[in-house]
């Protein structure tokens, strides 16, 4: 079966596009940016290189989005579950599609079916990461005897993937080689989603997001990680060595360019502007939004610079232009966060 | 298994505000799975995997949950989490447990990797090998084919923020919104007068726990599910009555 009248729009982040498409099917048309904000989209992660307890030997920076389903469900007051059952024969997926008439949101390893993505295949091949992309989600909108039909956030097309290839990308059997294991994210939405209580959702989302960003206990996330990254980055060539830095620059550049473009700052800024009809404060929100757009542009410029192979590692990491970019990013982000604190103070 | 027992180690890691036992118990919810067994027959079974939602919501806490076998990758990942200040919990299944719920969360207090042998010191005060923990879960996995048996949980205690509202109020509101979501979902649209719904024992047991033990509402709710088989529309009517009852309770709660 294939979902009838399914409307899919290309977007920036796999999770927020999946939620947006599902909301649209339940009667609530919103922009991806709006979902992104309700899902606590303001984030930053930085992993230090080396050290015995470090994540791995390379450094990485990105805007992570792993908890977006949880945050969205909590802020929007909808039911959210994780399905982790082994499913060798697609029966669980088929029954979810048939009964709910909504796309089924699955974690996958997209590199496995890259060859079936036509012109978009290069996207997964351009990545310079040290690990498989294991946290990507796709929307399953149909299954028949031969194929699984999916929608991906980076394209408006529907792709057909042979069942056995898709099974490998999900690897959901009882003898999985994947570590950690892939799951289904199941959001139960009322079929008549309305705009009632949107104001409450916005305040809950931004306040919760700010609290986590500013006061979260995880040193590798939020403001703590941002400050650490800004301070450590120019010094890393001295402490880590050139080879580690060269590879890390490729990884971080790819993460900023492909996984979290512009650290999603422009997207968060657009969310704030979408909030204006509900909560007012147009002048303040528009100022914050323009600061975030500026930061987004600078993050992309930073990613392009650190991936420039014709520059030396030192130039890329602590050259004058890099330091200038980092200073400007820091200033814009700090002003934006201060502005958010003022507007959304409890 | 009783939620208080199952969740004890996690409850002990939460701020001591006299409510931790209550919060552990409130990890029981009213969620259920609807399965189509034939063209016009459905069955409902309790869905027990959302246990930590109330903790997430009440403490506004980011809790990460990963399903991964007890190998060296899991050990290394969790060791890093602990070094960064995170509290880490894993499921320890009862010996020979075949049921997915027969486990307690145990806090991981120390981890060692000696010559490829992963050693896990848990809140029961004992060292366990990764293999023995995996073996305890394997019968439950074979039975249910659910990777959740290999779940680990971690959160940063510093990120805990208490809410101004009572936990009871947050809990009841969550129950109401869960019912509201289901009742008006496309899924519920299949449940009309011409289909039959069979009520699994786990479904009524879950309701007994929530309505009687946690909310102290007496046994009136039992009238709603007297029959083992109901028509689809009768079933939806019962859920709507539950929703009304809980909305009234929410209005009364401070």
Read across the widest sheet of chain A, the strand sequence of neighbours is: 3-8-4-5-6-7
Order of helices and strands of chain B: HHHEEHEHEEEEHEHEHEH
Strand content of chain A: 5-15%
Terminal residue distance of chain A: 48 Å
The backbone outline of chain B, from C-alpha atoms, is globular
Mean pLDDT of chain A: 89
The SSE order of chain A reads HHEEHEHEHEEEHEHHHHHHHH
Largest sheet of chain B: 6 strands, antiparallel
- Percent of residues in helices of chain B comes to 25-40%
Low-confidence parts of chain B, pLDDT < 50 over ≥5 residues? none
Major sheet characteristics of chain A = 6 strands, antiparallel
What's the alpha carbon Rg of chain A, rounded to whole Å? 21 Å
Write up what this structure looks like.
The complex is a heterodimer of chains A (346) and B (254). Helix content of chain A is 50%, strand content 11%. By secondary structure, chain A is of the alpha+beta class. Chain A has a six-stranded antiparallel β-sheet with strand order 3-8-4-5-6-7, with helices on both faces. In chain A, strands 1-2 form a two-stranded antiparallel ribbon. In chain A, strand 5 and strand 6 form a beta hairpin. In chain A, helix 1 (14-25) packs across helix 2 and helix 10 (242-259) packs across helix 12. Chain A starts with 13 loop residues before the first helix and ends with a helix. Chain B is α+β, with helices and mostly antiparallel strands and 254 residues long. A six-stranded antiparallel β-sheet of chain B has the order 3-8-4-5-6-7. In chain B, strands 1-2-9-10 form a four-stranded mixed β-sheet. In chain B, helix 7 (167-183) runs antiparallel to helix 9 (232-252). Chain B is 39% helix and 22% strand. The radius of gyration of chain B is 20 Å and the shape is globular. Chains A and B meet through strand 3, helix 4 and helix 7 of A and strand 1, strand 3, helix 5 and helix 7 of B.
